[in-house]
């Protein structure tokens, strides 16, 4: 796409959803396994247990985007790491049109081999958060708590 003399990329993602049964839908994405999504039992007691909810997927999209972004950005900063563990916690509040996410917090523990990598990884962790497509697209604030631990 040519915009004002600059070439821009366009990325498009598609999926379909179909009714399965009361409070359950399936999600189909070309070339990927189909899966079911249901209302969470904390909203509807009769909701099935053990099925992903839209709320689960909302948080999963943010934490997984951060994880893959961190992996990629760390290469740009030449920040070596042994591993990382990332969790996310989201809080709902009553909004104008019903329940909505008020905020979420991503907690990352990243192990690195040296103090030099720790400094680089601090920058990489921040940049991965700043440039995460999913978090940037959410209307609720997404906070990051990153702990960088040197394990030689």
Please write out the topology.
Layout: E1 2-3, E2 6-7, E3 16-21, E4 24-28, E5 35-38, H1 54-76, E6 83-95, E7 98-112, H2 115-130, H3 133-137, E8 142-150
Parallel strand pairs: 7-8
Antiparallel strand pairs: 1-2, 3-4, 4-5, 6-7
Helix pairs in contact: 1-2
Structure write-up:
With 152 residues, the protein is an alpha+beta fold. The chain has 2 domains: 37 residues; 97 residues, K homology (KH) domain (GMP Synthetase, Chain A, domain 3), CATH 3.30.300.20. The chain is built from 3 helices and 8 strands; from the N terminus they run βββββαββααβ. The strands form 3 sheets. Strands 3-4-5 form a 3-stranded antiparallel beta sheet, with no helix packed on it. A 3-stranded mixed beta sheet has the order 6-7-8. Strands 1-2 form a two-stranded antiparallel ribbon. A hairpin with a 6-residue loop joins β4 and β5. α1 packs across α2. The longest helix has 23 residues. The N and C termini lie far apart (48 Å).
How confident overall, as mean pLDDT? 94
Number of strands: 8
User: In which order are the strands of the major sheet placed?
Assistant: 3-4-5
Taking the sheet with the most strands, its summary is:
3 strands, antiparallel
Please bin the fraction of helical residues.
Answer: 25-40%
End-to-end Cα distance, whole Å, is 48 Å
In the CATH hierarchy, the third-tier topology of the largest domain is known as GMP Synthetase, Chain A, domain 3
Structural class: alpha+beta
Q: How many separate helices? A: 3
Assigned CATH class of the largest domain: Alpha Beta
* Domain unit count: 2
Radius of gyration: 19 Å
Can you tell me the CATH superfamily of the largest domain? Answer: K homology (KH) domain
CATH architectural group of the largest domain: 2-Layer Sandwich
């Amino acid at each position: 796409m040519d915009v004002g003399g600059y070439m821009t990329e366009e990325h498009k993602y598609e999926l379909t959803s179909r009714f399965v049964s009361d409070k359950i839908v399936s999600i189909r994405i070309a070339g990927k396994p189909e899966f079911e999504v249901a209302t969470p039992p904390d909203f509807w007691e009769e909701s099935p247990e053990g099925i992903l909810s839209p709320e689960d997927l909302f948080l999963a999209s943010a934490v997984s985007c951060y994880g893959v972004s961190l992996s990629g950005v760390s290469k740009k900063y030449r920040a070596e790491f042994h591993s990382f563990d990332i969790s996310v916690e989201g809080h709902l509040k009553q909004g104008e049109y019903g329940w909505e996410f008020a905020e979420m917090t991503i907690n990352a523990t990243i192990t690195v081999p040296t103090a030099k990598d720790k400094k680089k990884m601090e920058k990489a962790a921040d940049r991965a958060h700043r440039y995460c497509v999913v978090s940037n697209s959410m209307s609720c604030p997404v906070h990051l708590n990153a702990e960088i631990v040197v394990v030689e």
